[in-house]
Amino acid sequence: MSTNEAMRNPLFNKENRLVVTSGDRSDMVLAALDKSTIGILLTNNILPPSNIISKASEMNIPLLLVPSDTYQVARQIDAMEPLLTRDNTENINLLTELIRKNVKIKEI
């Protein structure tokens, strides 16, 4: 898929999106680096150039590297069952409290 095609796709422009792309697709990674992206999953164990990694770091967008190909990763994500949903306020409150007690957020 070309970068232009991806950017015209309504899913690519959703808020709080996770972008899954091969690490050698610098064009896609750069297109995904904006405030709507919560993370970029880089497939095929390929890191993008260091300037792109730096830009993602400056924007606080995590880059996650995985060995599988893009199709397999997308299928695995699609098959996932969420353990936590927006409607489950009881579990959200419990998780929030557990994080507050056990994670040193300032050190992250």
- Strand element count: 3
Distance between the termini: 35 Å
Radius of gyration computed on alpha carbons: 16 Å
> What name goes with the CATH superfamily?
HprK N-terminal domain-like
How would you sum up the global shape? globular
CATH-derived architecture = 3-Layer(aba) Sandwich
Q: Strand order of the main beta sheet, please?
A: 1-2-3
- Rounded mean pLDDT score: 87
Output the CATH class name: Alpha Beta
Strand residues, percent = 5-15%
Instruction: List low-confidence stretches.
Output: none
What string, H for helix and E for strand, traces the elements in order?
HEHEHEHH
CATH fold naming: Udp-n-acetylmuramoylalanyl-d-glutamate--2,6- Diaminopimelate Ligase, Chain: A, domain 1
Helix percent reads 40-55%
Number of domains: 1
Structural overview:
By secondary structure, the protein is an alpha/beta fold. It has a single domain (3-82), classed as HprK N-terminal domain-like (Udp-n-acetylmuramoylalanyl-d-glutamate--2,6- Diaminopimelate Ligase, Chain: A, domain 1), CATH 3.40.1390.20. The chain contains 5 helices and 3 strands, in the order H-E-H-E-H-E-H-H. The chain has helices at residues 3-8, 26-32, 50-58, 70-79, 89-102, and strands at 17-22, 37-43, 63-65.
Quick gist of this model?
With 108 residues, the chain is an alpha/beta fold. Helices cover 43% and strands 15% of the residues. The N and C termini lie far apart (35 Å).
